[in-house]
Design a protein that fits this description.
This protein has nine helices and eight strands. By secondary structure, the chain is an alpha+beta fold. The protein folds into two domains: about 190 residues, Trna Endonuclease, Chain: A, domain 1; about 30 residues. Strands 1, 2, 3, 4, 5, 6, 7 and 8 form an eight-stranded mixed sheet that branches. Strand 4 and strand 5 form a beta hairpin. The longest helix has 22 residues. The mean pLDDT is about 95.
Length: about 230
């Protein structure tokens, strides 16, 4: 037996983490979107302000959602306020989304966080739940409040937000409905395990896996020969 044996689940998750964004980007391309991953930015001043007036309208809509825990509304709003305050305290000027999509002159922000091993260790499940949103720094908060996005030096209004995580949870419908009402824009949750099922027979997907396999095989072959070439 080895000293400090590798964590095999983490090893697989790390490898997958190096190319799953390529899968997601190509998935959206097959849906007719133009996909941008360079020259994209959101400035902090473009986040919708959560003042007494805007919150009053939001809370009125949110109370119509059937939530198993009604305190979620107040908890989510506080989470957003706290995160916005942290950004201001750090004097952060902007952040960069994972992708920006464009279709029919409408622009959508995409954030991806696929954490299967970590979620399983901490929460004993891999789905995106309210518990995860309220306790972790998922990229929904506060980025979903972005009203504008810069793409290749041009500024566009944001029509919606797509969040990609590992797998579907029992909270899927309430989370989607909540954030659609919270932003008055399109909001969709997408799941990596479902995307993989949809694209598994596509030519580009098989070519990507073949390239990954070649690179990993090359690395292991070099290691067997006593060489490290990264």
């Amino acid at each position: 037996m080895w000293y400090k044996a590798p964590h095999w689940d983490s090893l697989k998750a790390t490898l997958f983490g190096k190319f799953y964004e390529t899968i997601v980007a190509n998935y959206f391309s097959t849906k007719g979107f133009n996909v941008y991953d360079q020259g994209i930015a959101i400035y902090i001043e473009w986040l919708e302000e959560l003042n007494e007036h805007t919150l009053g309208k939001k809370i009125e809509k949110l109370h119509n959602i059937k939530l198993t825990d009604p305190t979620i509304i107040d908890k989510v709003i506080k989470k957003f306020q706290d995160e916005i305050m942290k950004l201001k305290e750090r004097r952060r000027q902007r952040f960069h989304p994972d992708l920006v999509l464009e279709k029919g002159c409408k622009y959508y922000i995409v954030e991806m966080q696929v954490w299967p091993v970590w979620l399983k260790q901490k929460y004993r499940e891999t789905g995106l739940t309210w518990n995860v949103i309220l306790n972790e720094g998922v990229a929904i908060v506060p980025r979903i409040l972005a009203t504008k996005v810069k793409v290749q030096n041009k500024v566009h209004p944001v029509s919606g937000f797509y969040y990609v995580t590992y797998s579907r949870s029992k909270d899927h419908e309430s989370i989607e409905e909540f954030f659609k009402l919270f932003t008055s824009r399109e909001f969709k949750l997408l799941y990596m395990d479902e995307i993989i099922q949809e694209v598994k027979d596509r030519k580009w997907y098989k070519e990507l896996l073949s390239r990954v396999k070649d690179e990993v095989t090359k690395l292991l072959k070099n290691l067997e020969e006593g060489k490290v070439e990264l």
